[in-house]
């Protein structure tokens, strides 16, 4: 019978067309075994951040509130868009989309602070609106996919999972699994033949434990997890819980500094935090003994003085330093006297005892790495 062979095998339509000279695209089966000797290095040689992030990855940055996870994300996004190294690792210059589902308006101001510190860059875009990717009856997911298809980003940041999926029961496997599938599906809008985008989600950590908050399915499905630890003025420590593209364990450190952006309508300074890379040896240096209650009070008063509009001025206190906000010792003395830190003598001057107290307090804060100090100037570290 035409179209059959002796053993009963029936030729496929593609094979029949080829016999008569027709050309077409042969279907490649999904389950097509590759021999051991034909295994390739394709995935290992492809990266967005070398040793951290590769095409098609789902990565997670997580930590406690105030640890700086939503500062690390924008810094990495900026480095990718600029094509510059980040934390000593190569990046491939690419198009980046940062989705700020949580506190989007403030995130936009933080990006302005990032631009002031590091300069303008093309290829970094943001969406800063509330959204609901959990409810399939809502049009948000469809419209977001349409914008991703139009923009064609190589890396997509989602900040945060909780804000992008409101109402999700994080400890339920069904809800968490749905969220993970949705996050991965954002990469499906890439043009045919283009590398698959990576998705980096920002998430919270539980009160205790070393894995992300919620059902373990999230941690299990991610290709890369980065745990951020640290509070207040201490360096932030980033540790890989898992990393399919490189070693796990301690990865890098970063710090946080405030960028002054202008003055608001009340005359107060507008400042926003940005992440800054730390030299690894500098990050390892001890920061001194913890402050006692009295020293912490002196430091709070100094922070309040620096926050007063127009009081601090940018100066270069020491050779080879960049400009920083400083106060003169006289300004500090007058300011601390104004908040009742000192008692004046009968002539309206500081007593010798109070001058000694101030000198000892400032030296103690300097020794503990909280302030910089010269004979004339004071600045925050």
TrEMBL record:
InterPro entries: AAA+_ATPase, P-loop_NTPase. Pfam families: AAA_25. Residues 55-230 form the AAA+ ATPase domain. It comes from the Bacteria. This is AAA family ATPase. The lineage of its organism: Bacteria, Pseudomonadati, Pseudomonadota, Alphaproteobacteria, Acetobacterales.
């Amino acid at each position: 019978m035409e179209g059959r062979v002796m053993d009963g095998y029936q030729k496929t339509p593609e094979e029949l067309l080829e016999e008569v000279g027709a050309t077409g695209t042969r279907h490649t089966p999904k389950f097509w075994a590759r021999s051991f000797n034909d295994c390739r290095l394709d995935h290992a040689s492809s990266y967005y951040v070398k040793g951290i992030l590769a095409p098609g990855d789902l990565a997670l940055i997580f930590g406690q509130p105030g640890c700086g996870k939503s500062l690390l994300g924008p810094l990495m996004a900026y480095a990718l868009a600029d094509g510059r190294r980040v934390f000593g690792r190569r990046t491939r210059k690419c198009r980046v989309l940062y989705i700020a589902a949580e506190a989007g308006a403030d995130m936009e101001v933080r990006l302005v602070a990032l631009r002031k510190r590091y300069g303008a860059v093309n290829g970094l875009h943001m969406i800063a609106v509330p959204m609901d990717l959990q409810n399939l009856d809502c049009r948000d997911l469809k419209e977001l996919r349409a914008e991703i298809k139009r923009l064609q980003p190589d890396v997509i940041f989602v900040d945060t999972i909780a804000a992008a999926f409101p109402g999700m029961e994080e400890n339920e496997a069904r809800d968490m699994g749905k969220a993970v599938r949705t996050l991965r599906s954002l990469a499906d809008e890439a043009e045919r033949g283009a590398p698959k985008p990576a998705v980096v989600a920002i998430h919270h950590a539980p009160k205790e434990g070393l894995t992300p908050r919620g059902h373990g399915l999230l941690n299990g499905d991610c290709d890369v997890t980065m745990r951020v630890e640290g509070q207040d003025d201490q360096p932030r420590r980033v540790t890989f819980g898992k990393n399919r593209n490189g070693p796990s364990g301690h990865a890098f450190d970063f710090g946080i500094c405030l960028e002054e952006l202008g003055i608001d309508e009340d005359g107060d300074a507008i400042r926003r935090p940005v992440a800054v890379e730390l030299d690894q040896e500098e990050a390892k240096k001890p920061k001194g003994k913890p402050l006692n209650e009295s020293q912490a009070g002196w430091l709070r008063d100094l922070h309040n003085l620096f926050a007063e509009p127009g009081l601090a001025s940018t100066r270069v206190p020491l050779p080879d330093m960049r400009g920083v906000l400083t106060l003169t010792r006289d300004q500090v003395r007058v300011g601390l006297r104004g908040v009742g830190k000192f008692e004046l003598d009968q002539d309206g001057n500081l007593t010798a005892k109070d001058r000694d107290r101030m000198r000892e307090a400032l030296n103690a804060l300097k020794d503990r790495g909280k302030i910089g100090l010269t004979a004339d100037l004071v600045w925050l570290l």
